[in-house]
Specification:
Layout (H helix, E strand, L loop, with lengths): L10 H8 L14 H16 L27 H18 L5 H11 L17 H16 L11 H12 L23 E3 H18 L2 H16 L13 E3 L13 H18 L2 H18 L19 H4 L1 H15 L4 H17 L30 H12 L19 E3 L5 E3 L33
Antiparallel strand pairs: 1-2, 3-4
Helix pairs in contact: 1-13, 2-14, 3-4, 3-5, 3-14, 5-6, 5-7, 6-7, 7-8, 7-9, 9-10, 9-12, 12-13, 12-14, 13-14
């Protein structure tokens, strides 16, 4: 059932598997590679029980939702989280059971313009939502994920970048706003996550294609975040954002693991591509802060909300999976980080699977890993998809040492990419309307009303 994977190549693999005690949670065992694959297979099956996009009359690539319309617990971008988690699952375990479903979802949600702005999402779609889908397509390209006929993943990721680079403006000296148009709530908020996702995608496109335009813009985005002190110059914490009406001086110092996750991995991609010492140092500073803040006692912990049950939103619930998946890839891109990162991911994954003892199956997973016991997702008002995907990501990522690193243009496939107007651009000719501040001419406003995303930063 599973493809044969190469033997782990680094000494740290022995540390991860040698020190990893067998975790028993209703049959889950993670002491060997084979046990990890078997546990991941069960976790993937359970996670897919939340997905109905492959059912008759349902839309491929969507989880039930959005909550704002009373249709389910999940927003559009959270389906991108599921798709990317399953791409990694296939890459790490060799199990292609869900590949067709994932491929159809990734293609369908790209929309008619192939840029992840489908017509049925435009009323609520914001920059980070689109970026999550762009990163999912980028991941598929880097792993050579099997694509349907006449489909290539790279252009979908490029098209997201091309539409977003046109939205940069000179408010606060550059950067992306959370929302896309002035009619949307959040247009005055320039948040870190939108820019961290844009930075991450650009860094990966730079490495994959070798094109310097992607690299220059990724560096400009970093410089903008640094200049506004969205990244703390002393602590290296990544804060949430600020309002353009205040010239982005009112920095909201809330910290979320996704912000630093996307920045850390993006910095690692640039270092791997350029071998520049500054990016090595930045990666290591971010890794240190990431582990210290979001893995206390070496177990993933979402700082802003996890101290009390019921405080975490459906968005925050799914962040731990990103933390595990992205940090695992950092160890491939900057191997010297492995000794710090892999033992932490190992212990955290063990804590994750040990609490998967709930539900009718006796193996449902919760969110509060550090408690050592299952907490029903109802405590945070969710039905459990994010919780399930988190644990799947954590367990699958234990196989990172035996997996190939993200590919580049030399081994992947290149073709043409559409922009927001469905015009073709080659993968070596991205949009170039950028300047050193990270600003560009703002594209045509997209009419929209309301948004089904978080409101906590405005409280």
């Amino acid at each position: 059932m599973f493809a044969t994977l190469p033997t782990a190549g680094r000494p740290t693999a022995l540390l991860v598997l040698g020190c990893l005690a067998t975790a028993l949670a209703q049959g889950y065992s993670v002491g060997t590679d084979d046990e990890i694959r078997e546990s991941a297979q069960t976790l993937a099956y359970d996670a897919m029980l939340f997905y109905d996009g492959n059912s008759t009359g349902k839309t491929p690539g969507l989880l039930p939702g959005p909550p704002s319309e009373g249709l389910g617990d999940y927003y559009w971008y959270q389906a991108a989280t599921m798709m990317s988690t399953l791409v990694d699952y296939w890459h790490l375990t060799g199990d292609g059971t869900y590949n067709d479903v994932v491929a159809k979802g990734l293609v369908h949600q790209a929309g008619k313009d192939r840029n992840y702005m489908p017509a049925n999402q435009t009323a609520t779609l914001v920059n980070d939502d689109q970026g999550f889908w762009g990163m999912a397509a980028m991941l598929a390209a880097e792993h050579q994920f099997p694509a349907p006929d006449n489909e290539v993943w790279l252009p979908l990721a490029q098209a997201v970048w091309n539409t977003q680079v046109e939205r940069l403006d000179d408010r606060c000296g550059g950067g992306l706003a959370w929302a896309i148009s002035p009619e949307q709530l959040g247009y005055q908020y320039k948040n870190t996550v939108s820019n961290a996702v844009f930075f991450n995608l650009g860094a990966r496109l730079a490495r994959y294609t070798g094109n310097s335009t992607y690299l220059r813009q990724a560096e400009a985005t970093w410089d903008w975040l640094w200049a506004l002190e969205y990244i703390d110059h002393k602590t290296w914490r990544a804060y949430d954002g600020a309002h353009s009406e205040q010239n982005c001086t009112d920095v909201n110092k809330a910290t979320f693991s996704t912000n630093i996750a996307f920045l850390t991995q993006g910095a690692a991609f640039i270092y791997n591509h350029t071998q520049e010492e500054k990016w090595f140092e930045r990666t290591n500073e971010l890794v240190g802060r990431f582990l210290q803040d979001f893995f206390p006692e070496d177990v993933a912990y979402e700082v802003p909300c996890e101290a009390a049950k019921g405080r975490c939103t459906g968005d925050m619930i799914a962040y731990k999976g990103y933390a595990h998946r992205l940090l695992a890839v950092v160890t491939q891109l900057v191997p010297s980080t492995s000794q710090r990162i892999l033992p932490v991911l190992q212990k955290s994954a063990q804590a994750a699977v040990e609490q998967c003892t709930g539900g009718d199956s006796g193996r449902a997973c919760g969110f509060y890993w550090s408690l050592g016991e299952y907490v029903d997702p109802e405590a945070d008002g969710t039905t459990g998809a994010g919780e399930a995907l988190n644990v799947l990501a954590a367990i699958s990522s234990l196989l990172i040492d035996g997996a190939s690193s993200p590919m580049t243009n030399a081994t992947g496939t290149s073709t043409e990419a559409g922009d927001s107007d469905s015009e073709a651009q080659t993968d070596n000719d991205p949009a170039t309307s950028t300047n050193s501040s990270g600003a560009a001419t703002f594209g045509p406003a997209m009419l929209a009303s309301g948004m089904g995303t978080l409101l906590w930063m405005f409280l």
